[in-house]
Amino acid sequence: MSGPPPAAPAPERLPTAGAAPYGPPAARRILVTGSTGFIGGRVAAAARMLPGARLVLAGRSTGPDESDPAVRYVHADLADPAGLHGLCEGVDTVLHCAAQVGGAEHSARAVNEEGTRALLAEAERAGVRRFVQVSTASVYGRGIFRNAGPEHLPVAPLSPTSRTRAAAERLVLAAGGTVLRPHLVIGAGDRWVVPGLVRLHRRLAASVDGWQARMSVVDVDDLARAATAVAVAPRDTSGVWHPNHPEPVGCARIFDALVRLLGLPAGAGDIEAGEARRRLAGDPVLLHHLAMLTTDHWFDSSRLWRETGCPAGSRFEESLARHAPWYREHLGTGVRGRPGRT
Predict the structure, then answer these.
(1) Does residue 194 contact residue 320 with C-beta atoms inside 8 Å?
(2) Residue 3 domain-assigned?
(3) Residue 33: which of 173, 104, 128 has the closest Cα?
(4) What's the domain range around 39?
(5) How many domains in the chain?
(6) Would you tell me how many other CB atoms lie within 10 Å of the CB of residue 180?
(7) CB atoms within 10 A of CB 151
């Protein structure tokens, strides 16, 4: 009886740890996957700022036509491992930003886990020396997270997306790579975080228990700078890093900023979490948001900025103010967010 072909074996450990000094940016050829997505597009833009670096930008679309000899666009689909053959040829650094978010578990696994497995195998075959994956703090599942570093947190994913991204992380870490786990990423192109908060505010029309919980947040452009800084750091950066702004933001501040900067109506009073759950009954997405926003999700991110020397960037209100025109324009459509690949 026929069946799917066997998965590619996990690659050997990439030649990162113990290798010779990493060399100047001018000596590097960098592959960015997911380069047409929300995060990958900003990572690609940050990588283009590296003096002398040559880029291979991979995505499901081939990108714009341009004549920059230092940039090459290629079509790559992680759900088609055979199509990745040769993708890492001549590359010494991979910034892996592509992921399937939402959808059926078999689809997420094909992209996030098996696609990453195949990409790692190509990276090992081509002699890539540094592999950085942009993942998500959702691999921790739910809990109370207060100034928590990755070394103290068990991985306990709950959703199909998080389970398959956690599986991809295990492959990357086993190969000696680097994993970044941001929490809430905001900025132009975000169709999940701020749109979800806006929907929640409109449905509840009130604060919940004073919105006392604190969140880790990062501007997408600051995340892109962090990913690039880790990728080109002269020291070994293997392991897990939190790339959020080091200062957590209280949820009351978050909603105050949404009202002020996006022109939302102010909430009418304060309600208890039980009443909020009753008002949101039947909407699992908003119930998920509520569960998160009523519990601290604050991840210690100081180490990344300190050890790379990269400035931490914008606090939440500054970031939202900069991106507010984009949010105001796009909040009328796709507010709920749709599953898709980045």
Answers:
(1) yes
(2) no
(3) 128
(4) 25-251+282-332
(5) 1
(6) 30
(7) 9
